[in-house]
Amino acid sequence: MSKPRLEGKVALITGSASGIGEEAVRLFAENGAFVVAADVQDELGQQVVASIGTEKVCYHHCDVRDEKQVEETVSYSLEKFGRIDVLFSNAGVIGPVSGILEFDLTGFDNTMATNVRGVAATIKHAARAMVDRNIRGSIICTTSVASLLGGTAPHAYTISKHALVGLVRTACSELGAYGIRVNCISPFGVATPLACTAYNLRPDEVEATSCSTANLKGIVLKAKHIAEAALFLASDESAYISGHNLAVDGGFTAVKHIFSA
Length: 261
What we know:
By secondary structure, the protein is an alpha/beta fold. Helix content is 45%, strand content 14%.
């Protein structure tokens, strides 16, 4: 039997109470990691941890918009497990679903506070912990195909995800000197509770929309596929990958059909 891919590593995962984050908590734990699951949805987060049923996984409340809460969550992780090897900064919001002519700037500010400022705070404090302990860690952020194209998501969300790629690249440029890798993952449409709520659609309706517009046929993108990409970037299998935006989109952003079959 092969050795678990994250054996002995400590991972902090934000946005972990549902969707991609929940799948990552489960998958990382299955692969030997100690996991701190952080979210604002306390009841759901605690249910996730309880369902895994191991002392290697614990929950901590964290609103990433509040830097103090981020710092406290990192401190909690260090007190609990002594180190942080992996940060999966996954917390995010869709933001206002409206046209640019009716743009909700208050909603935009909240989207940027969560999707960009919040991620910057998690990178700042987790990276400090890694540098202080001489840990050659891995930092992973959840972006979106909206970080690569316009017109695939609401304006606020698209702007925030473009900015997040810039944050990943500039953090990579500094943290590489400490042996810390910084990458991001850009999923195509996944039927997470976040997406379903934002668009008022059932999971099967989100999946049907994604399948109809996807380039790669014969597979339905699930949250677990994104968690598996995060597992790869968290593990030593990606030891020389940094500054990369990994599109998990079945070729959606690489292909534009101009001729029909």
